[in-house]
Design a protein that fits this description.
mainly alpha, 2 domains, globular, disordered N terminus, transcription cis-regulatory region binding, TetR family transcriptional regulator, Tet_transcr_reg_TetR-rel_C_sf, Homeodomain-like_sf, DNA-binding
Length: 398
């Protein structure tokens, strides 16, 4: 009788699976804390391995970021691959929206790579990641053109971009919501945005920011010049890639004189945050003061927020992207301010639409805010403030 062969060993996690697991953990941490604030030891601890074990899979942290971005790009390419080649346009659009919502819900913590942390990618990886997003928006715009043939091409792209931003908004907050409710809510919001109309676009020049450091002149304090001069470098290169000397040089202030106004770069960043929070608080409270009903208050609040994001986009971008680099005490204080601002929107939405549950209103508010952020802070703007306002109300009303 032939002796039986030993049973095969239980399958072990493949090297590729392990790399994907580590990249997912890293992407989550990068989005929560910022790329530069996360070390290989942090990733290893989260994964339950030793630091040196990471080098079996990645040569450095940059390689992990590239892998995470390419992994997310592949998931988005999968959404595109699933688009039916024929059929009613709205059904095909719905198919894309559902698939994209599923990807965002599944990868919620790491999807925000698209917004800020991709700026740290190498040129080739950045180009591929950006091309994938552009392709996704283009596909949705083309399908929208089939569904709404009279819609101008520029409006198709604007609506497609806004719909993607609405779906991706789930990655920008930590509101407790079940995957089923999140997917259904994001789908409804995105389809509502795609179905809305837009007013004619006015001329959009540059990035719309208020005058920068070069336009301030010599009639303001050195402290003010440092604050303004820090915004563009922080936004473009990130907090950790900018030195106090860089900021001082941009402001025309050399050497140790910079530290007479701010003891550290963290203190300067905190001052930027408090300025943004104060400006936003004043703008919103002034806007809704004297409103006669919730609808008017909401309209004024939307106008004030879009003006803040549109005209002070460098300040707003730093306010949104560099939170993790604040000193701990400032971070906790400002988080409360940001949450209260969101809740102000939620209260007004619920008051205007009394049949809307608070949890869904909160989901819609975050979607609306993310539309404002992505469209108003784009380096090459294709929308004006009035168009963004229409998109916000489409998201809130969906």
């Amino acid at each position: 009788m032939k002796q039986s062969e030993p049973a095969p060993a239980a399958p072990t996690r493949s090297r590729t699976d392990r790399k994907s697991q580590l990249a997912t953990i890293a992407a989550n941490l990068f989005c929560e804390r910022g790329y530069h604030a996360v070390g290989l030891g942090d990733i290893a601890t989260e994964a339950g391995i030793t630091g040196p074990a990471i080098y079996k899979h990645f040569r450095n942290k940059q390689a992990i970021l590239a892998y995470a971005a390419n992994d997310l790009a592949s998931a988005l390419e999968g959404v595109l691959a699933g688009v039916p080649p024929s059929g009613p346009p709205w059904e095909r659009l719905d198919r894309v929206v559902r698939a994209l919502s599923a990807v965002v819900v599944e990868r919620r913590r790491g999807v925000q790579l698209y917004q800020w942390e991709r700026r740290y990618l190498d040129a080739d990886d950045h180009a591929r990641f950006t091309a994938t997003i552009t392709s996704l928006v283009g596909t949705i715009a083309d399908l929208l053109g089939e569904a709404r043939p009279r819609l101008p091409a520029a409006d198709r792209t604007t609506l497609a971009t806004a719909a993607c931003s609405a779906i991706a908004s789930l990655s920008t907050h930590r509101t407790q919501v079940s995957p089923r409710v999140a997917a259904a809510g994001l789908r409804g919001i995105a389809l509502g945005v795609l179905a809305t109309g837009l007013p004619p676009r006015l001329a959009v020049a540059g990035n719309g920011d208020r005058p920068g450091a070069a336009a301030i002149g010599d009639f303001v304090s050195r402290r003010e010049r440092l604050l303004v001069s820090a915004l563009r470098p922080f936004r473009k290169r990130g907090f950790h890639a900018v030195t106090m000397e860089d900021i001082g040089a941009a402001a025309g202030i050399g050497g140790s004189s910079v530290y007479r106004h701010f003891p550290s770069k963290g203190d300067l960043l905190a001052a930027v945050y408090y300025r943004a929070a104060d400006r936003l608080a004043v703008a919103t409270s002034t806007a809704i003061e004297g409103a006669t009903d919730p609808g008017e208050a909401l309209r004024r609040l939307v106008d004030a927020y879009i003006e803040f994001s549109y005209l002070d986009s460098d300040l707003a971008a730093v306010y949104l992207s560099e939170y993790g680099n604040l000193p701990a005490d400032d971070r906790h204080a400002l988080r409360k301010v940001q949450r209260e601002h969101v809740e102000q929107w939620v209260r007004l939405v619920v008051a205007v639409r009394e049949d809307t549950r608070t949890s869904y209103a909160r989901l819609a508010v975050h979607a609306a805010l993310n539309i404002v952020h992505d469209l108003s802070m784009a380096r090459r703007r294709h929308t004006d403030a009035d168009q963004i306002k229409h998109l916000v109300f489409a998201a809130l009303a969906s």
